[in-house]
Design brief:
- Chain A is an all-alpha fold and 256 residues long.
- Chain A has one domain.
- Chain A contains 13 helices and no strands.
- In chain A, helix 3 crosses helix 8, helix 3 crosses helix 12 and helix 8 runs parallel beside helix 13.
- The longest helix of chain A has 26 residues.
- Chain B folds into two domains: 237 residues, P-loop containing nucleotide triphosphate hydrolases (Rossmann fold), CATH 3.40.50.300; 77 residues, Alpha-Beta Plaits.
- Chain B is built from ten helices and 13 strands.
- The longest helix of chain B has 17 residues.
- Chain C is globular.
- The longest helix of chain C is centred in the last third of the chain and has 31 residues.
- Chain C is mostly helical.
- In chain C, helix 2 packs across helix 7, helix 4 packs across helix 9 and helix 9 runs parallel beside helix 14.
- The chains are: A mainly alpha (256), B alpha/beta (324), C mainly alpha (309).
- Chains in contact: A-B, A-C, B-C.
Chain lengths: 256, 324, 309
């Protein structure tokens, strides 16, 4: 006999906690940005509104990418439990099967909240709007999402070589998102060169934001960099697909 | 002389309240009575079989006896302690093996679990060493002492569970389905171990099992529980005679039997091979198997005989099916 | 054990015991007399054995430790740069009492302490409650809170040797870290971290115990992760907030005692007397949280229903 007694109230309490928790967790990063501006007026030479624009761009692009491609994270579980073999046996693309788009409420809300922050920040930043700048925003969010999608796939391929790679990948996916939430001027040295330019994270939010504000880059790169997000996303996708193919081949040849 | 009672319950009860949604806003509550007035007295050194169909209340009783579940009514005392309020004190006096749950520390080698048990149960080092040596020998643990518990097979793990339950020399041991899922060899090892434990006489064992072979081989006293109530409390023989189970005697004769059997309590169950193979069943109280065979030998020429014990499965199945 | 001689003495012992609190885990089972006086009481040895087991258990999780340490280090870089930019942005090189080296130490030490203090993500107890395995814990003659605390201390000890050292080293290599100048800071820091582990444990124990009442503890876990990240000083140093917000949080909640306190001790943000006061506050919260844990445990046991008939 399943002697498990749960009152009706417990269902409601669980639901309430779930709702509150889901709302608050994404708020942490936003609160952190706001907290920084409690002690200073500029961060890396940019005001609160400007930083929040970058935060909004980053957050929206990430959430959109997660919406489209986030399910690839399941690959870790599949490799560990051996379910990946079942997927590989089917006459469909493995990547296609894993990438089933997942419109969970949680993912959609995160995208919408990211957009909200972006819109409010743009209003606060008193931007001098023209059609080109508006286009930058749309292009940035769209191709930023594609870029993050590629990052998700590329980091997921590590599972083919190293079974418990979950935490490892988080450093690049969530770490990447946090990196792009702040102006690149905040970072320095080798770290900046690798993440911002080597891996291309600077093009998700920083350069598009500069383009929207009409500000010259303190780091000296030309203004049309604001439009380069799609190029970077394309390159990232290429790298990801090569990594994926190589990974699948390695997995097939060595077994699980 | 006052008997040394290790377990004493009086009208023990447990009722669960289950709330279910009935329509959009209402909820109905109904009570499920798991244990409905169980009265037990168990003396020191007994090996008691506690059996019943699924959902009869066996595990619930066990949980109340070990202090894990609070009774809804009645009284209970184990080793002179009231289980729920005095649970931690009781824990030093009892050992428990819950078949599906593990008392071992999962990620560490088996050896470490035993060493940890020594500290947690405050066992004097000499006693611990002596007992551990004995269990290592009797349960053949040496082959897998250094393997992490999570990598052990079920049979190995169960032997480990038995050891850790007994390492602190408890006065009472509760075994809830200890042989479930075990292979034949492991089951045999556990059974001989328990037989020795019983014969040693200083530990009381309460054994819950679905394996009736365990019951037949180990238990002198048997308590059958059904729908939360005790329906039988006595020896196996009493169970058989109460529920009318019969021994069978199979005889092979040179020629069909001329006379009919007129002995009291003997029935002719079946005849085959043109009357030469006859199965008799005895009710166990009037005529013994020996008397029957003796009489047959005097009126016919016997070629072969065999005696079949009553199957406890039959008795128990009938008990469960009758659903008293 | 000699049963015949035990019974009369057991009667006397039982009568004596019935007047005392029966729920203490430090009572000896009836009839066991020590052969010679021991230097360390049995309860401490039992605690130590459980702690050692916790340490050994976590030393078997090598791959997970490496991965977690890597992640801690990556996020250390990200946070450190942002904090340094905040300090630089003030124009005076100090933000809320932290100068650049101090804020760098704050950042890297906090990344190192995440593993030691284990702010969130611990679900051992909740998992065991949901699967019913918690029964095994209740059948041991040790109070569950004590047993889990011992195991957690063992875990923290292992993390101190592995997950703490790497981020500190990485931070020291790439950034200019503040090194504590006062000699008494080091032992005070160790004490502070130990107390932080206890406060964090108490909180985690209570949150996990929600599994006795709720079906699904995911939501509770998320709230707890949020509260700890924000109010314990992980997302940002608590002092960045205006002081009318900081002091209520510090006094009325256990969160700052979990991370902010040992960090402030380490970077010597205040005069020694104030830091000792902070550590004393941690001790008070440790007592409160353990007491709360025991209270919740008692309530849980009163209405205990273990899964699996």
């Amino acid at each position: 006999m399943a002697a498990q007694v749960r009152g009706h109230a417990a269902y409601r309490a669980s639901f309430a906690f779930d709702l509150a928790g889901n709302a608050l967790i994404p708020a942490i990063d936003l609160i952190a940005v706001v907290a920084m501006f409690q002690v200073t007026r500029v961060l890396g030479g940019f005001t609160a509104a400007e930083v929040l624009v970058m935060f909004g761009l980053s957050s929206s692009a990430f959430a959109l990418g997660d919406l489209a491609v986030g399910n690839i994270e399941r690959i870790r579980v599949y490799v560990r439990t051996g379910l990946l073999d079942a997927i590989l046996v089917r006459p469909l693309s493995a990547l296609g099967q894993l990438l089933a788009v997942d419109f969970t409420i949680r993912r959609v809300t995160r995208f919408l909240t990211g957009l909200t922050v972006l819109v409010l920040a743009l209003a606060a930043a008193s931007v001098d709007w023209n059609p080109a700048r508006a286009a930058i925003i749309v292009v940035a969010v769209g191709s930023g999402a594609a870029f993050f999608g590629a990052v998700f796939v590329a980091t997921a391929t590590v599972s083919f070589w190293w079974i418990d790679s979950g935490e490892f990948a988080n450093g690049f996916t969530y770490g990447g998102r946090d990196f792009t939430s702040y102006p690149v001027t905040v970072y320095s040295g080798l770290f900046r060169r690798v993440f911002a330019y080597g891996l291309g994270f600077a093009f998700v939010a920083y350069y598009p934001a500069l383009g929207v504000f009409g500000r010259p880059d303190p780091l000296g790169l030309p203004g049309w960099m604001a439009w380069c997000t799609p190029v970077v996303a394309f390159l990232a996708a290429a790298v990801a697909s090569v990594a994926w193919r190589y990974g699948i081949r390695h997995y097939r040849s060595t077994g699980s | 002389m006052k008997p040394d009672l290790v377990i004493e319950t009086r009208d023990l009860r447990k009722t669960f309240t289950v709330t279910r949604k009935a329509g959009r806003f209402r909820r109905t509550r109904h009570a499920i009575v798991a244990v409905d007035g169980v009265t037990l007295r168990v003396e020191r050194g007994e090996l008691l079989g506690y059996i019943g169909p699924n959902g009869a209340g066996k595990s619930t009783t066990l949980k109340m006896l070990t202090g894990v579940l609070m009774p809804s009514g009645g009284e209970v005392k184990v080793c002179g302690l009231v289980p729920v309020p005095q649970r931690r004190r009781l824990a030093s006096q009892i050992g428990v093996v819950f078949g599906q749950r593990s008392q071992l520390w999962y990620d560490l080698p088996l050896r470490d679990s035993f060493e940890l048990a020594r500290h947690v149960w405050r066992v004097p080092a000499a006693d611990h060493a002596a007992r551990l040596a004995r269990f290592r020998r009797d349960l053949d643990l040496d082959g897998f002492l250094d393997i992490p518990v999570r990598q052990l097979s079920l049979g190995q793990r169960m032997r480990g569970e038995l050891t850790i339950a007994l390492l602190h020399g408890p006065r009472v041991v509760f075994l809830d389905e200890p042989t479930i899922g075990l292979d034949v060899v492991s089951r045999q090892a556990v059974r001989s171990f328990l037989t020795e434990l019983r014969d040693r006489g200083d530990t009381t064992v309460v054994l819950t099992t679905h394996d009736l072979a365990d019951i037949e081989r180990l238990c002198r006293r048997l308590i059958v529980i059904d729908h939360g109530r005790v329906v039988h409390d006595g020896t196996l023989a009493e169970l058989h005679s109460r529920y009318g189970s019969r021994r069978r005697v199979l005889v092979e004769l040179d020629e069909p039997l001329a006379e009919s059997v007129a002995l009291p309590g003997v029935e002719r169950e079946s005849v085959s091979a043109e009357g030469r193979l006859i199965t008799f069943s005895l009710d166990g109280s009037s005529t013994t198997a020996g008397e029957l065979v003796g009489w047959l030998a005097s009126v016919a020429s016997l070629r072969d005989i065999s005696v079949q014990e009553p199957a406890i499965e039959d008795v128990v199945a009938r008990l469960y099916a009758s659903g008293r | 054990m000699d049963t015949a001689s035990r019974r009369p003495s057991e009667e006397r012992a039982r009568r004596r015991r019935s007047q005392r609190d029966l729920s203490s885990a430090t009572r000896r089972p009836a009839g066991i007399r020590p052969k010679r006086p021991r230097l360390i009481p049995a309860s401490a040895r039992s605690f130590g054995a459980l702690a050692a087991a916790g340490f050994r258990r976590h030393s078997t999780y090598r791959q997970a430790t490496v991965a977690a340490t890597f992640t801690n280090s990556v996020f250390g870089f990200l946070r450190c740069y942002v904090l340094l930019a905040a300090v630089a942005g003030t124009g005076v090189g100090v933000a809320a009492g932290y100068d650049a080296p101090r804020v760098a130490t704050y950042c890297w030490a906090s990344q190192g302490l995440i593993g030691v203090i284990f702010l969130w993500g611990w679900t051992d107890l909740a998992d065991r409650i949901r699967s019913g395995d918690v029964v095994a814990d209740l059948l041991r003659p040790v109070h569950p809170v004590t047993a889990y605390l011992a195991a957690d201390i063992g875990r923290a000890g292992h993390a101190a040797l592995t997950r703490f050292i790497v981020p500190i080293a990485v931070g020291a290599i790439f950034f200019d870290l503040y090194v504590p100048a006062r000699p008494h800071t080091y032992p005070l820091f160790v004490v502070s971290v130990a107390l932080a582990v206890v406060v964090s444990f108490g909180f985690r124990y209570v949150v996990n115990s929600a599994a006795y009442w709720l079906l699904d503890v995911r939501g509770v876990n998320m709230l707890w992760a949020f509260a700890t990240t924000v109010f314990a000083g992980l997302a940002f140093p608590l002092h960045f907030l205006p002081s009318w917000l900081v002091w209520p949080i510090w006094i009325a909640t256990p969160f700052p005692s979990i991370l902010q306190a040992p960090l402030d001790v380490l970077v010597e943000r205040s005069p020694p007397a104030q830091l000792v006061g902070i550590v004393a506050g941690q001790a008070a919260w440790a007592v409160v949280m353990l007491g709360l844990g025991r209270y919740v445990q008692r309530r849980a046991e009163a209405k205990l229903v273990i899964q699996g008939g």
